[in-house]
UniProtKB/TrEMBL annotation:
UniProt-recorded name of the protein: MFS transporter
Membrane topology, record value: Multi-pass membrane protein
Residue ranges constituting the Major facilitator superfamily (MFS) profile domain according to the UniProt record: 26-415
Cited Pfam families: MFS_1
Any GO CC annotation of this UniProt entry: plasma membrane
Taxonomic lineage of the native organism: Bacteria, Bacillati, Actinomycetota, Actinomycetes, Kitasatosporales
Keyword Transmembrane (UniProt): yes
Source organism: Wenjunlia tyrosinilytica
CDD domains: MFS_MJ1317_like
Chief localization: membrane
SUPFAM superfamilies: MFS general substrate transporter
UniProt keyword annotations, A-Z: Membrane, Transmembrane, Transmembrane helix
């Protein structure tokens, strides 16, 4: 029996080593950085809607602007960070600066107090950090794994990322319980704890992530002219247009959770658990969806994810309610992110030249982030003008239209070459 056990252990060990080899140890290290960073960021994200709407008494329209800023206002910095990372071939350094800026911004929330302009400035700083780090990080993933395994690599990374997203709201809930949710300093305690966790992520990046500095390409390959030339490629233009369309159809997480809380009449203390439920679904589905994308095609998985988002919007105002509908809504919402977040980047990577991989990814992410900003502001205004039910039905229609147009855009330009796997 002991021999059989050893054989099984040896086989399992070889399987684990093969799995790590398939995605690369650098992907695992980047996943660890994202895991810890997401604990920090989701601690704040989980309480911000309550802080803004209940404590600061923001209207849905004002919250829509602030929520849009949280993702879209500094999107252009993605292009700057992406180009600098490609030009200097120091993707890790640019990503590290971004992680550091976001960590420092957590302390800025303490100084902002109840001032909406100050909060907006801090959020811009935090998202500036995210804008700088996202494209270099994703480019490092594409350069650390084989093209055929990019879906799996991004799936593993996003699964690790979602472990942090799952844990973050729980940590925030624990801090609020420890300090007292009604205590004047409750949110400050969350912000300070979030900063400490974010600083730990920067340390992990410095110690364990390796840069991928391939042979220096000719100067003309990494230049402003070469970056603009990316847009002459029909496949890149199609991906950019699709990313913008899909971004326009996506409203902020905070809106989804606020609508769920409104419908089910949860107490405010339970609000962070809504993000926990969605992130648990994301955690469980990210790696399997990444593997499915590599095996059966990345575009069908992305479009299927947006089909899940359409179902979420419809469920928010369906006649049924209760725990089962809430769980189904959160499961579909997490599944939407699992099927789209990393898979869209895996779909784009083979189309982009390695010398400008970070710039190209940043271009697509910038388009999506700016579209998301417009969507969040628009949804907030629609809620304010026509009510949440009408606004959500409009969002559902936008998803349906975006999926149809994305299918038309991406099927033809990717019908040959590497894109055929899309």
């Amino acid at each position: 029996m002991s021999t059989i056990g050893l054989q099984r252990g040896g086989t399992a060990g070889k399987g684990r080593r093969r799995g790590i080899a398939a995605v690369g140890t650098n992907v695992l290290a980047l996943g660890a950085v994202s895991l810890v960073t997401d604990i920090s960021s989701e601690m704040v994200t989980a309480v911000l809607p309550l802080y803004f709407v209940l404590t600061l008494q923001m209207s849905p329209a004002v919250y829509g602007v602030v929520d849009g800023l949280y993702t879209g206002a500094t999107a252009l910095l993605r292009l700057v960070g992406g180009y600098v990372a490609d030009r200097a071939r120091r993707r890790k350094a640019v990503a590290g600066i971004g992680y550091g800026v976001s960590a420092a911004a957590k302390l800025g929330l303490l100084a902002a107090g109840g001032s909406v302009p100050a909060i907006g400035a801090v959020i811009v700083a935090d998202r500036a950090g995210k804008g700088l780090r996202t494209a270099p990080r994703d480019a490092l993933i594409t350069l650390s794994a084989p093209d055929a395994g990019l879906g799996r690599a991004f799936g593993l990374h996003r699964a690790m990322d979602s472990v942090g997203a799952f844990a973050g709201p729980l940590v925030a809930l624990g801090v609020l319980a420890l300090v007292g949710a009604q205590s004047p300093g409750a949110f400050d305690a969350v912000f300070v704890t979030s900063f400490c966790v974010a600083a730990a992520a920067v340390v992990i990046l410095v110690l364990f992530v390796r840069d991928r500095r391939e042979a220096r390409p000719p100067a003309h390959c990494v230049s402003p002219a070469a970056a603009f030339a990316l847009l002459r490629d029909a496949r890149v233009r199609a991906l950019l247009a699709a990313a913008c369309l899909l971004g326009l159809a996506t409203i902020g997480d905070g809106f989804v959770y606020l609508l769920l809380m409104r419908r089910e009449e949860f107490g405010t203390g339970w609000f962070p658990l809504l993000a926990v439920g969605a992130n648990l679904s994301y955690l469980l589905l990210a790696a399997p969806f990444g593997t499915l994308a590599d095996r059966f095609g990345r575009l069908p998985v992305v479009l299927g994810g947006y089909g899940g988002l359409l179902a979420v919007y419809l469920l928010l105002f369906c006649p049924l309610s209760g725990a089962a509908i809430t769980i189904l809504t959160l499961a579909l919402y997490g599944g939407f992110y699992a099927a789209t977040d990393g898979v869209l980047m895996a779909l784009a990577a083979p189309v982009l030249p390695k010398a400008l991989r970070t710039t190209g990814i940043a271009l697509i992410q910038t388009g999506q982030a700016l579209a998301y900003f417009a969507s969040s502001v628009g949804f907030g205004l629609a809620w304010h003008s026509w009510g949440p039910a009408a606004a959500t039905r409009m969002a559902a229609g936008a998803v349906l239209l975006a999926v149809a147009l994305t299918a038309v855009l991406l099927v033809r330009p990717t019908a040959s070459g590497e894109g055929a796997r899309a």
